[in-house]
Amino acid sequence: MQHALKHIWHTAREYLTHWMVAGLIVAATGVAPEHWMTHLVHDLHIPTDALHLWAAEIDLRWLLLAAGLTLVVGDIAWRRTRPAAVIEPAPVAQPASAAEALTLPDKPSIAVLPFDNLSGDPEQEYFSDGVAEDIITELSRSRALFVIARNSSFTYRGRVADVKQIARELGVRYVLKGSVRREGDRIRVTAQLIEADSGNHIWAERYDRDQQSVFAIQDEITQAVATAIRPAVADAEMHRAMRRSPKSLGAWDLYQQGMWHLAKMNLEGNDAARGLFERAVELDPMFAAAHVGLSRTYQKAGAQYLTMSMDEAIRLASMHARNAVQLDPGDADALAELSWTLVLQGDQDSALTTARQALAINPSCAPAYRTMGSVLMNTGRPVDGRQALRAFERLSPRDANITAVHRQIAISYYYERDYDRCVEVARRDLSANPGLTLIYRWLAAALGQLARTEEARAALEKSIAISPHEFEVYVHNRVTWMRPEDYEHMLEGLRKAGWQG
């Protein structure tokens, strides 16, 4: 019915335009544009005076002229502003079961659609295809994602289909779509990640670049999009898992719930996460990611929340990290977690080697950069360490561990003896999150080194008051990952701040 009405409207519009143009010419000139119309006007014997309303002094020809011009100009404007007609390709051959929804994989699944070419030049199609294809290749490197191959997702080129239908047909939970426009020396790429079930846009970005090298621009945009998609997908997975009924949870959903609780960055969340990770391992002992999660909860319990002895926490964290690597030696996150437990054990050389192995597998592995930053800082290279920490910050700016990384950046300035910058970074973090505890110790030490006695004493008192046990663990005894000279350097600043130890 809707299609029939649309056809009637288009037909009427075409004929109305034709008649109004003809009427306009007759009214303005008295000459009909076609032979049959000339005879019609002649046979009707319409006198010139009949075209005038003399009493009102209105010439009907001018009314016809105005009406015709209005319709013609309006029709031209409508034609120029309406979207170009989409020519749908021939139907793609599909298996008999295509009408049935595909079973979703146990991991986050995504399809990257061909990006729309908005350049107005069909020959630029290769560039938009190249951007989308490179993103598919980059995402496919992640073992945490199930990525639809190009030959399947590109069949939707030019087809009008909603995201839910596409996701159903390809058996994915997420769809990435975008567009490319090239104008002169500028290139603009937009991308948006959509959760198919809800239709929510969970991530979107626009990239504007100068055109210097097509391949260099493809690489830059591909890396930026792929880096942003991974945390967006992970965040959406965590929230999706929390919406599910506990009775239907599998190992993956338990893991995602655990990650959601772990991201709260508090003791209660850490304990809840450990219980969920343990249940995930019970359901699937071969699930490497769940072992990684368990390792994180133990190392946080010992080094951050101090709810168990440091030695026991490190032992359990290391055990689960090694289990994860044994189960999946190609999992970059597992290697990164193992490298962090090696840092806590004081084995800096092995930690650095393992972190580099993780980055060789996945150059966008943010936790591996954090390990590298810590190792380099703790081995007398604070500038190089800070560079690695900045890489983490760039790759994962909304990471739950970002405050810990900022604290390490502040410490790197302290080790470098740039006490002013140490104070600046520490106070910036405290203004954003006054509940931070470990940072007060380094703020006090830096202020002590600067001889800002009153401020230093206030920070020192705050550090002890907030968590006296924490102060005891990190100040009265040297932790395994800190060099003796760095430990003495810290104590020197604290004594200048007024500490009597």
In short:
The chain has 501 residues and is α/β, with parallel strands linked by helices. The chain is built from 21 helices and eight strands. Strands 3, 4, 5, 6, 7 and 8 form a six-stranded mixed β-sheet that branches. Strands 1-2 form a two-stranded antiparallel sheet.
Your description of this structure?
The protein is an alpha/beta fold. The chain has 3 domains: 2-81, no CATH class; 98-243, Rossmann fold (3-Layer(aba) Sandwich); 250-496, Serine Threonine Protein Phosphatase 5, Tetratricopeptide repeat (Alpha Horseshoe), CATH 1.25.40. It contains 21 helices and 8 strands. The chain has helices at 2-29, 35-43, 60-81, 125-140, 150-153, 163-170, 214-243, 251-262, 267-283, 288-303, 310-327, 332-344, 348-361, 366-378, 382-395, 402-415, 419-432, 438-449, 453-466, 468-476, 484-496; strands spanning 52-53, 58-59, 109-112, 116-117, 146-147, 174-183, 186-195, 200-210. Strands 3, 4, 5, 6, 7 and 8 form a 6-stranded mixed sheet that branches. A two-stranded antiparallel sheet has the order 1-2. The protein starts with a helix and ends in a 5-residue tail after the last helix.
- Envelope shape: globular
Q: Provide the helix percentage.
A: 55-70%
Note poorly predicted spans.
1-11, 33-56, 79-99
Q: How many DSSP H or I helices?
A: 21
β-sheet strand percentage: 5-15%
The span between the termini is 87 Å
Q: What is the oligomer described by this structure?
A: single chain
Could you tell me the mean pLDDT? 81
**Succession of helices and strands:** HHEEHEEHEHHEEEHHHHHHHHHHHHHHH
CATH class of the largest domain: Mainly Alpha
- The secondary structure category is alpha/beta
Give the count of structural domains: 3
Number of strands: 8
